[in-house]
Inverse folding.
């Protein structure tokens, strides 16, 4: 797992033997963070265990940055996967 803190957001990337597999980003606000959907680097569907690893790393970084709440806007299919990982659904 690699992380790159950039000016406006952080990037986390999961690699296997120097081959990127999945990547996600998080932006931070005052007491909150927003995580964009994790994507497979090769363009295929992201593997559930790869998604979980990247989300865990981004959530950990959000905690370190002082976020009390982490938002992850996703479609309905991804919401089910996120709930299985311990996220809470908050329909808008």
């Amino acid at each position: 797992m690699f992380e790159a803190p950039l000016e406006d957001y952080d990037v986390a990337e999961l690699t296997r033997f120097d081959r990127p597999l999945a990547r996600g980003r998080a932006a931070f606000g005052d007491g909150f963070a927003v995580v964009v959907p994790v994507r497979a680097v090769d363009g295929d569907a992201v593997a559930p265990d790869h998604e979980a690893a990247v989300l865990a790393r981004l959530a950990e970084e959000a905690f370190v940055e002082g976020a009390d709440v982490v938002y992850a806007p996703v479609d309905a299919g991804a919401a089910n996967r996120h709930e299985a990982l311990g996220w809470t659904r908050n329909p808008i």
Remarks:
- Helices lie at 48-64, 76-84.
- Strands lie at 2-5, 10-16, 19-28, 32-35, 39-40, 69-71.
- The chain has a mean pLDDT of 88.
- The radius of gyration is 13 Å.
